[in-house]
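Hi support team,

I've been running sequence recovery on a batch of backbones for a student project. Most finish fine, but this one hangs at about 90% for roughly twenty minutes before it completes. I'm not sure whether the input is malformed or the queue is just slow. I've pasted the structure tokens below so you can try to reproduce it. Let me know if you need the job ID as well.

Thanks,
M.K.
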């Protein structure tokens, strides 16, 4: 018998600055106080029953073992058809499309595939919380460039100034979480011109591609030959079909980039849920669900914003996604002067509505007196939240 008690070895964290995410904190607080959770970005309504039926049929048809490592061929073909129809990009489903375990895995895998220790990767803040830890896990150096405060439009002079011989990639997101800003064709053209003389790669997070409002058009990197030739284009079935828990996405990239992507993909996830891939492939035969998604979410945005118009919140432009950002500085409550994170906790406890502080999307916690609501909720959920927010 050992004379020494069991001992857990000491280790050096790969992510020493990462703790519990704000989304987990706010969702737990919302549950504790029975608040309406407009914080974390997922629907509280069901997907189309036909999609669930398609999964059942796939299981009953015996599609329950490992699929091919890059993904079920029918689903990759359906994605190739969509990319051509919507964006004019002709891609080979055999060598240029990979099915992933959601967009977060896709982004991490792309970074692990191309970033070497010491390489710099430009991220535009505010940004989704996985980007910087993903870069660090790959051994890269995140270079944070702020989007223009207030409008959250890209500042290409600052992006150009951040580029060095060590820049390996730039990570962009449009429609943008958390701000709801949508990049224009001119923005994408400017980026294409900026990157043209370089070997900088592009990771284009386009998970909200089908949520663009007021007659605008999603400007995918796929539309721009100079960007498509250097891009990993990331999409999400979870966001598009209201099944975020399925964790299925895709990456479209040129064959040479896809080959490197798949080298990592085969060892960090290998492959993705088989029956759901077959179900999605069958469901995509009808494009109406994703073609009609912008109108579906625009109606929810308008319902929510009409209600907020009766409060002292100042709404920022919401051009896409299912998020609405608001300025809290005009509220007639003393708590408006709290740091935005503390304000969101107060709002959850005392008003009964959970939101996310925009500062959580910045490395330095930049507080602009702005918080983010998610309106991917049932109409009754939104009305109940608006009823409570009317107290402000």
């Amino acid at each position: 018998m050992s004379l020494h008690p069991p001992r857990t070895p000491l280790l050096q964290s790969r992510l020493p600055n990462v703790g519990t995410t704000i989304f987990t904190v706010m969702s737990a607080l919302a549950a504790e106080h029975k608040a309406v959770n407009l914080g974390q970005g997922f629907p509280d309504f069901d997907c189309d029953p036909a999609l669930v039926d398609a999964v059942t049929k796939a299981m009953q048809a015996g599609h329950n073992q490992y699929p091919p490592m890059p993904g079920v061929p029918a689903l990759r073909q359906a994605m190739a058809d969509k990319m051509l129809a919507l964006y004019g990009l002709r891609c080979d489903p055999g060598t240029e499309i990979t099915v992933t375990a959601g967009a977060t895995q896709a982004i991490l895998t792309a970074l692990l595939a191309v970033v070497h220790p010491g390489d710099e990767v430009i991220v535009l803040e505010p940004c989704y919380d996985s980007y910087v830890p993903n870069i660090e896990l790959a051994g890269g150096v995140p270079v944070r460039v702020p989007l223009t405060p207030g409008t959250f439009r890209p500042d290409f002079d600052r992006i150009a100034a951040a580029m060095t011989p060590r820049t390996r990639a730039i990570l962009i997101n449009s429609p943008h979480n958390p701000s709801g800003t949508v990049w224009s064709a001119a923005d994408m053209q400017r980026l294409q011109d900026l990157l043209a003389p370089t070997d900088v790669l592009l990771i284009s997070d386009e998970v909200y591609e089908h949520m663009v409002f007021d007659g605008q058009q999603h400007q995918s990197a796929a539309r721009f030959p100079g960007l498509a030739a250097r891009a990993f284009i990331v999409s999400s079935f979870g966001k598009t079909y209201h099944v975020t828990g399925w964790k299925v996405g895709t990456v479209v990239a040129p064959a040479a980039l896809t080959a490197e992507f798949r080298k990592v993909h085969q060892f960090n996830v290998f492959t993705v849920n088989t029956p759901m891939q077959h179900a999605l492939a069958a469901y995509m035969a009808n494009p109406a669900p994703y073609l009609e998604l912008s109108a579906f979410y625009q109606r929810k945005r308008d319902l929510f914003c009409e209600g907020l118009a009766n409060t002292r919140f100042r709404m920022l432009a919401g051009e896409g996604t299912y998020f609405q950002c608001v300025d809290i500085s005009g509220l007639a409550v003393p708590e408006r002067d709290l740091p935005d994170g503390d304000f969101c906790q107060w709002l959850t406890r005392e008003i009964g509505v959970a939101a996310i502080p925009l500062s959580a999307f910045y490395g330095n916690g930049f507080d602009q007196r702005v918080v983010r609501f998610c309106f991917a909720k049932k109409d009754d959920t939104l009305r109940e939240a608006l009823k409570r927010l009317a107290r402000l």
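--
Follow-up from support: It reproduced on our side and the slowdown came from queue contention, not your input. The mean pLDDT is 96. No action needed from you.
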